[in-house]
Amino acid sequence: MRITERENHLAALAQAGVQNGIFPGAAWAFGTVGHDMHDGVAGAAGRLTPEPASAAMQVDTLFDIASLTKVVSVWPLVGWLLKRRRLRLDDRLADLLPGTVGYALAPITVFQLLTHTAGLPLRARLRASYGEVYDDIVRGVLREPLEGMPGQAVEYTDRAALILGFVIERLLGMPLDQALDEHVLRPLGMAATGFGPLPAALGALVAPTEYCEQAGAHLSGVVHDFSTRLLGGVCGISGLFSNVPDLQRFLGAMLAPQAGRHGEVFDAGWVRDSLTVQTGALTPSRGLFWHPAAGTLAQDDVWCHLGFTGTAMWLSPRRGRYAVLLTNKLYYTRDSARVNALRSDFMRSAFDL
Question: Which InterPro entries match (predicted)?
Answer without folding.
Answer: Beta-lactam-related, Beta-lactam/transpept-like, Diverse_Enzym_Activities
